[in-house]
């Protein structure tokens, strides 16, 4: 009888361990990777044009049914280049963007993004933090006045990550 109880306890522990392993292997839906279309639309929603909402030229992003890098995706204005199905160049210059510079961390899932332009807009505030975009090699935005005057609180990263004043 004691052997049966021990065997039942061992089977119970084995069943519990299997359930824990299965639970750990299950990926919640919210943790799944976002599509590049979802990422761009979240970023679009954070942008402010002259009327206070996202720039009208980017409204097609919200209604597009295809991925930004589909061969026939003509509904993704300002997505200028894709390589291997990933957005590589995003040109948002001259959209009359207003207010604080957007949070570039929203674009972090775009792992292929190498060039981003926000120039010729009316953005204010701190120089955007590009550290969330490790593949980024070209960023076009006006340099803040503090950086031009050599403000020690502003650092500009060179191409190799070296800090320059």
From TrEMBL:
Signal peptide segment: 1-31
PROSITE patterns: LRR
Protein name: Leucine-rich repeat-containing N-terminal plant-type domain-containing protein
Gene3D superfamilies membership: Ribonuclease Inhibitor
Keyword Signal part of the UniProt annotation: yes
Keywords from the UniProt entry: Signal
């Amino acid at each position: 009888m004691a052997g049966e109880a021990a065997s039942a306890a061992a089977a119970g522990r084995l069943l519990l361990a299997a359930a824990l392993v299965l639970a750990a292997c299950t990926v919640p839906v919210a943790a799944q990777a976002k599509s590049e279309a979802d990422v761009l639309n979240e970023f679009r929603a954070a942008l402010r044009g002259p009327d206070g909402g996202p720039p009208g030229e980017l409204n097609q992003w919200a209604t597009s049914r295809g991925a930004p890098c589909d061969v026939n995706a003509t509904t993704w204005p300002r997505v200028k280049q894709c390589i291997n199905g990933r957005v590589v160049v995003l040109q948002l210059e001259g959209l009359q963007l207003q207010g604080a510079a957007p949070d570039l961390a929203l674009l972090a899932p775009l792992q292929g993004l190498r060039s981003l332009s926000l120039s010729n807009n009316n953005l204010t505030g701190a120089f955007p933090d590009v550290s969330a975009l490790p593949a980024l090699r070209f960023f076009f935005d006006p340099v803040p006045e503090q950086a031009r005057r050599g403000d020690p609180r502003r650092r500009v990263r060179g191409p190799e990550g070296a800090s320059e004043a």
